[in-house]
Amino acid sequence: MEKVKVKKRRVYGPGEILWLAILFLLAALILYPLFWILMSSFKDYNGIYGDVWGLPDIWHVENYMTAWNRGISQYFLNSLIVTICTLAGVVFASTFSAFGICQMKGRLGNFVFLFCLCGLLLSPQVCLLPLFMLLKSLKLKNTLLAMILPYIAFRLPVSIMLIRSFFVGISKELEEAATIDGATLMQIYGHIYLPLSKPIISTVIIMTAYYAWNEFVFATIFVDSSKLRTIPVGLMVFRDGLMTEWGVVLAGMVISCLPIIVLFLLMQKSFVRGMTAGAVKG
């Protein structure tokens, strides 16, 4: 007679049950406000104040069109331009710098690496006045570059640290074999290091995009024009102009959150792999 395999049900101990309960509670604390904002964005004024916690009786999809037409579209476009340019600058400069540091022999490489990490000691708030004067003297104030350049500068130290830590773990035999075949340093950088570093680059992309998309202080001080406002500053002005139309305001908030949420969902596996690899190597 054939033996029938019976799968044993996993028995959770008291400690595991406690941790699961804590995790479910934390997940609810994070997800429920997002769910409330999403549901409330489909309500009108009476729907929000009449039934705060309930689902919409009438789904006001037009709230999203109203929010988009009243200024969110311009703020969204500005944030998209700033974020993409910041990402391009950070990814190129950090990967190139980390590769150069890895090629330096002896103490020189460690010294340059530590010098790059000194940027982590600089607080953006402390640098506000010098940056303001510098951008004004260069006639970059009230332009998108007034946000892009500082964003790149302040994201480079941590990006170089993560990517360099990953580059150190790449086998030197691959580089030596490529050198024997006549590959130049640029070819080694482009055909060996970059393809193998997709997880850590994905991590840098997500962290940088989150920072550039949500940064508020520089965007408020360095830009005065209403046509150049990004999402965080624009939402503040948007909210003040629509104090009674909370459904439209919440719709604007949902629109502003979507790009970062979609980016993380698309790259979450690489993000986790990159964080763990960058943390244990080097």
Automatic annotation (TrEMBL):
InterPro entries: MetI-like, MetI-like_sf. Residues 76-267 form the ABC transmembrane type-1 domain. One of its GO terms (biological process) is transmembrane transport. The chain crosses the membrane at residues 17-39, 75-99, 111-132, 144-167, 188-213, 246-266. The keyword Transmembrane helix applies. Pfam families: BPD_transp_1 (PF00528). It comes from the Bacteria. It is a multi-pass membrane protein. Gene3D superfamilies: MetI-like. It is found in: Cell membrane. GO terms for cellular component: plasma membrane. CDD domains: TM_PBP2. Keywords: Cell membrane, Membrane, Transmembrane, Transmembrane helix, Transport. Belongs to the binding-protein-dependent transport system permease family. This is Carbohydrate ABC transporter membrane protein 2 (CUT1 family).
